[in-house]
Automatic annotation (TrEMBL):
Protein name from the UniProt record: AP-1 complex subunit gamma
GO cellular component term, pick one: AP-1 adaptor complex
Subcellular location as annotated: Cytoplasmic vesicle membrane; Endomembrane system; Golgi apparatus
InterPro entries assigned: Adaptor_Complx_Large_Subunit, AP1_complex_gsu, ARM-like, ARM-type_fold, Clathrin/coatomer_adapt-like_N, Clathrin_a/b/g-adaptin_app_Ig, Clathrin_app_Ig-like_sf, GAE_dom
């Protein structure tokens, strides 16, 4: 081991060439041994840097740069780079400039020391020395260096040497990016470079003009006059014969062609005259470019982007869409992906042209690549229309049955939206949604259940068909919670139609009362049932007590069992239903009658309501209040219960059998018996005659939060917060947190949901109860948190005043 250490030390003498040092470093067996070799070599390099007369400076700096490439510190070589740049020898200048580009940046003070050397070398008689200075300035030039040396670069842009003009043009691009104001300095020279024949100079000129046009609208207008020159240059490239110097896979200088097409796209955007001047050229490029090679596809793709971005002719846009359609048939998945990305951008404006490639796009749903599959799904959903809804929905439903888990929610949501917009019939609409719930019921949005319930309620002619179909689905699978919830609701509402067994739309099935109750009991007892699902099943069981005749005692037994359930929500339902059986049996038929038609977007039935909140009992506080009043006021027991359930159609008179003179409690007359039933099943307050004033307290990033308040008492205030999402992407994990002064008591009730669908399809509401006994100045700070497109957002807003009803 010691002998190897001695041999290594001898091998690493200061005169060892770069190749020998690399060989010694690579032969190190451990990282510790490699680190030791580099430390000894760096020590030797430092020692030689200190010598006044050092003939091997470039040799030592080259070794130091290799050490820097390995990730070891090499900052002590910065001043040596400055000294070597000032050397008159080209070999030392070359290594010095290379070291400056690697070891220096604009944040280093040492970089300012080379400004004068670069300025002198820009005027050097040797073109290669000038090239070194231009490359260094373009690589690490700071804003101060760019301002000082910009006149020199402008002078070199007008030089006679094509090699220098090419380097100067690219250096000017860096200067414009660093100091925008210097763009005007280079504009005249850049315009004159378009007359050059050298492709390198033309490439640099086009890049420079593109940078200038993107940063200044005035410069853009000035360079629109160069469109004919650019068209001529591009035509020369397209129709030119074979040139070994510029040919790449049969395409003449594709790099220059792509740059020119990008510049034409900028110049033709929102300008009809410039667009007309380049239409013929774009058609020529689109038809004459070979699409069998990747190089040709790159040129065609830039041509397509240019055609779609300028004010081009309709025929040319169809040609561009057809090129993208050919890309979809390419074996390269990257090409297919960019084709679908481009089609997604134009499907709104060129819908018919994209429709011609619908079959190819649908075939991409079977691709193994997840990114291609996602793009194909987005594009397929965008292509759904009233004319192709049946055929497209078959493909989408087939895709849903086998798609990856991460795409199911997006596919289900897209299918729901398409079915709602283009459904050819109500029955088809219901069948489609039920198919989705059967396939991916666990991946649908919360508002799917209330929306489907609303759809079923409004199609009275299909009640019998729907309840039979849902009953069969419930028997076959109870794992899909959304499907089970809708099935339980329909059985509770239309159980009499199911028991009747007469249905013209489907094959009749003889179902007994025991069969239906067995199915509901299975849901209640299943470990797969969520608390909300059990609530649906218990309510459906209770509703069947008015729709069947022979098994009422069994229903009473089922309901009483859940009166001691560990789940508070389910226990509350059971206790209230038991009260209906024992004390208010004469009202049970009226309370549990069939739901009326639900008006879409009516108060209390917004599409954005969460399923778990849309079907919820009245608040526990009201139950306690009723239980307190019942023993003290026997004559008003019925009134208390009606008040608990939400009001009656007309004021109720005292029960004559009781004979008490206790005054009757006032009861709201603003709602019907159907409205009472809605309150029983939804935990909803009676609709007020006038709405409370609403103010917008937050509007940022597409999320809007409005606030309305209603004074409940001298010190009590109820605040309603409503959130809406106007962006094109769904928002999840939406939460609201509130803080008030210490003397104010705050109670936040459960929100209506935690997701905000895109484009305002639904809203989230949250009630906040405030008690201000000390009458302090009321303020509230609200924290908004949500996740959008995989990124978490959080913001805070303060409310200093509250609108009162």
């Amino acid at each position: 081991m010691l002998q190897r250490f001695v041999n290594t030390s001898n091998a690493m003498s200061p005169s060892v060439p770069l190749q020998e040092m690399i060989r010694a470093i690579r032969s190190a067996r451990t990282q510790c041994e490699e680190r030791g070799v580099i430390q000894r070599e760096c020590a030797a390099i430092r020692a030689q840097f200190r010598q006044a007369d050092n003939g091997g400076r470039s040799h030592n700096l080259a070794k130091l740069l290799y050490v820097h490439m390995l990730g070891y510190p090499a900052h002590f070589g910065q001043m040596e780079c400055v000294r070597m740049i000032a050397s008159p020898r080209y070999s030392e200048k070359r290594v010095g400039y290379l070291g400056a580009m690697m070891l220096l940046d604009e944040k280093q003070d040492a970089s300012l020391l080379i400004t004068n050397s670069i300025k002198n070398d820009l005027s050097h008689s040797n073109q290669y020395v000038q090239s070194l200075a231009l490359c260094t300035l373009a690589c690490m030039g700071s804003a101060e260096m760019c301002r000082d040396l910009a006149p020199e670069i402008d002078r070199l842009l007008r030089a006679s040497n094509s090699y220098i003009k090419k380097k100067a043009a690219l250096c000017a691009v860096h200067i414009v990016r660093k100091v925008h104001d210097l763009g005007e300095l280079f504009a005249p020279a850049a315009r004159s470079l378009l007359a050059e024949k050298n492709h390198g100079v033309l490439h640099g000129a086009v890049v420079l003009i593109t940078e200038l046009c993107e940063r200044s609208p005035e410069t853009l207008e000035r360079f629109r006059k160069t469109v004919p020159d650019l068209v001529q240059i591009m035509k020369g490239l397209v129709i030119s014969g074979y040139s070994p110097e510029h040919d790449v896979a049969g395409i003449s200088d594709p790099f220059l062609q792509v740059r020119i097409l990008r510049l034409l796209r900028i110049l033709g955007r929102n300008n009809e005259a410039a667009s007309d001047a380049m239409n013929d050229l774009l058609a020529q490029v689109a038809t004459n470019t070979d699409s069998t090679k990747t190089v040709g596809n790159a040129v065609l793709y830039e041509t397509v982007l240019t055609v779609l971005d300028i004010k081009s002719e309709s025929g040319l846009r169809v040609l561009a869409v057809n090129i993208l359609g050919r890309f979809l048939l390419n074996n390269d998945r990257n090409i297919r992906y960019i084709a679908m990305t481009s089609l997604q951008r134009i499907v709104g404006t060129d819908h018919n042209a994209v429709q011609r490639h619908r079959g190819t796009i649908v075939d991409c749903l079977k691709d193994q690549d997840a990114s291609v599959k996602r793009r194909a799904l987005e594009l397929s959903l965008a292509l759904v229309s009233a004319t192709n809804i049946r055929s497209m929905m078959k493909e989408l439903l087939l895709f849903l049955s086998s798609c990856p888990l991460e795409l199911r929610a997006q596919a289900a949501s897209g299918i729901f939206n398409a079915a709602e917009r283009y459904a050819p019939s109500q029955r088809w609409h219901i069948d489609t949604i039920l198919h989705v719930l059967t396939t991916a019921g666990g991946d649908v949005r919360d508002e799917t259940v209330p929306n489907l319930i609303q759809l079923i309620t409004n199609t009275s002619e299909l009640h019998c068909y729907t309840v039979h179909k849902l009953y069969r689905a419930l028997l076959s699978d109870i794992s899909q919670q959304s499907l089970v919830q809708v099935a339980c609701w329909c059985i509770g509402e239309y159980g009499d139609l199911l028991l009747r067994g007469e249905c013209q739309e489907t094959e009749p099935v003889q179902v007994t009362e025991d069969d239906v109750l067995d199915a509901l009991e299975t849901v209640l007892q299943s470990h797969m049932s969520a608390p909300a699902t059990r609530g649906f099943a218990l309510t459906a069981t209770m509703k069947l007590s008015t729709r069947i005749t022979d098994n009422v005692d069994r229903i009473r037994s089922i309901v009483s069992i859940y009166g001691s359930c560990i789940d508070v929500e389910l226990q509350q339902r059971a206790v209230e239903y038991n009260a209906l059986f024992k004390k208010y049996d004469h009202m049970r038929a009226a309370v549990l009658e069939r739901m009326p038609v639900i008006e879409k977007n009516s108060p209390g039935h917004t599409n954005g309501e969460s399923t778990r909140e849309a079907v919820k009992e009245v608040q526990p506080a009201k139950v306690k209040q009723a239980e307190t009043l019942l023993p003290q006021q026997p004559t008003s027991q019925v009134c208390d219960l009606l008040d608990l359930l939400g009001g009656s159609e007309e004021p109720l008179q005292p029960n004559p059998a009781v004979g008490s003179t206790v005054p009757v409690l006032p009861i709201s007359t603003s709602s019907t018996a159907g409205g009472d039933l809605l309150d029983l099943l939804g935990g909803l307050e009676p609709t007020p005659l006038t709405s409370a004033p609403t103010v917008t307290v937050y509007e940022k990033g597409g999320v809007t939060l409005t606030l309305s308040s209603e004074k409940q008492s001298d010190s009590g205030l109820t605040v309603t917060l409503t959130a809406c999402n106007s962006t094109d992407s769904d928002i999840s994990s939406f939460t609201l947190q509130a803080a008030v002064p210490k003397s104010v008591q705050l109670h936040m009730k459960a929100p209506s949901g935690d997701s905000l669908p895109a484009r305002g399809a639904a809203k989230v509401t949250q009630m906040v109860a405030l008690s201000n006994p000390n009458k302090v100045n009321l303020k509230m700070r609200i924290r908004i948190s949500y996740t959008s497109q995989g990124s978490a957002f959080q913001d805070t807003v303060q409310v200093d005043s509250f609108p009162e009803h």
